[in-house]
Every structure is written in C-alpha cells, then in structure tokens.
Amino acid sequence: MIRAIEGIVAYPVTPFDVAGRVDTPALARLLDRMIDAGVDAIAPLGSTGESAYLDEREWQQVAAACVEHTDGRVPTVVGVSDLTTAATARRARFAERTGATAVMVLPISYWPLTQAELRAHFTAVAESTALPVMVYNNPGTTGIDMPPEFLVDLVHEVPNIAMIKESSGDIGRMRRIVELGGGTVPFFNGSNPLALRAFAAGAAGWCTAAPCLVPERVVEFWRLLRAGETDSATALFGKLEPLLTALVSRGLPVTVKSALRSTGLDAGDPRRPLLPLEPEPARELDALVAAVNA
Questions:
Q1: Which residues form the domain of 90?
Q2: What's this model's pTM, rounded to 2 decimal places?
C-alpha cells in the first residue's frame, strides 16, 4: 500500500564537503532534524537539492542515501527530472528500486516543449515505474508553464500520475485545479509565501525548504491549521513570512545553505555557477531565522 502524502513535504539541500563532494553524514543529520521535528514527508533532489548540478553517480548517491536513512519513518518523494525522457525514466526506476514512496517530475528542456511533447514525456515516465508520479509545474525555473487544464487532464488520463505540485505563485491556478478536479486531485503548493492561502484553497500539502532551517515552527503552523486553530496559524505564518520571502530572493540552494550555518549545520557552499550569499544578506537571513525561532 502506498502511504498517503500530505502536510509538510520537506525539501533538503544536498550538502557538500570542503572538497565539493556529497556529504552524506551532513545529509543524514539534516534529515533527522526535519523528521524528528515532525515533517510529513521528505522530498530529496528537487530544485533545493541542486539536482540539476549533480552528475548521475552523485544523484544516485543522494537518492539512495535519503531513502535509506529515512527508513520508512515518513514517505519519500524523489525528484527524478532530467533532460531526456529516457534519463528521467531511468531515474524513476532507480528511485523505485531504492524503496521511494513516489517520484516528482519537472520538465527540463533546452527547446520549448509543446503540450503533445510534454504529454508523451510524462506518460513514458509514468509507464516506466509502479510509483505514483507528482507532476511539477515551475515556470520560473524551467521556462515551461503547464496550465491547470493540462495538469488535471494528465492526472485523469495517465495511470500513475497522481499529484500536482504547483509553483507558479498564482493562487488562482490552485483554485482552478480544485474546480477542474472536483476536489479529488491532490495538489501541493510549491510557493512559500502562498502557503496559508494554498491550504485554504484545498492544498494537500506544502512543498518547502523552510524545514531545513525552522522545522518545528513550520510543522507547528500546519498542525495548528489542521486543528482548526486558524487565528493562531495565521499569526505564526505572519512570523514565518519574512523568512519565506527572503529564502526565494536568491534561489533556495544559496539562501538555505547560507542560513543553515547559523543553526549549527554546515552544508557547504552551493555548486558553481551558484555562488554563496554575500555577507550582508547572509546576516539579514540569519536574523530572520533567529526571529522565527525566538
């Protein structure tokens, strides 16, 4: 039986050591921090995890390490996106062999893709694995924008495509997914500042890197909201919001890795061409983390 995925879906960074190699002990500490705080799922190798900057051996190392260390404590949603359909399907099969709960697929392409090409891509990947597929729309990073009508149709028409992650930052699209799906298509918010409104619109969960830094507070927000304590949840989200906005200001690997040092966990620098955060914004980000945890 596939475990339900909902609530706080936490996205770990991929730590690197001083030599630039994947730091699996640091990754394990980060996973424990988030799981012990009560996150509902772990999603390695998304945008936050710098999947686009890992070679295939590193990608497999991180995928296997995350699933193995999580050890069934919470579901795992492994990002399997790659430039070609064949490579994405190969990664989906690898994630299945490691014991992942689900896979997430973001369309990556040098050339703009038509809806026919996107449909063929997602269908082939879904057919390559028995795991449920989360279709990920993030036009800000890919330049490919999939409308709600297309996304919901994929869920309805392609076996194994079971969930949508919507990261366009448009709350209207989330409401449209609910409308088109009759409230039966699970969708996840991938835009940090929209989390409160997304849950109100019917989101099944919030895909976020914020638990790398303030896991207890993010979990507390969701627990309050689920318990119907809307005023308390809204007040806590107001405290989280400046940090959430700052995290997306320069790209999540850059900001999260910078702020992690202030929490006592060094995940190294982002991989080139990404550069570490400059000293002044780094200090401002550290202050925001401290304010949330105060």
A1: 7-230
A2: 0.96
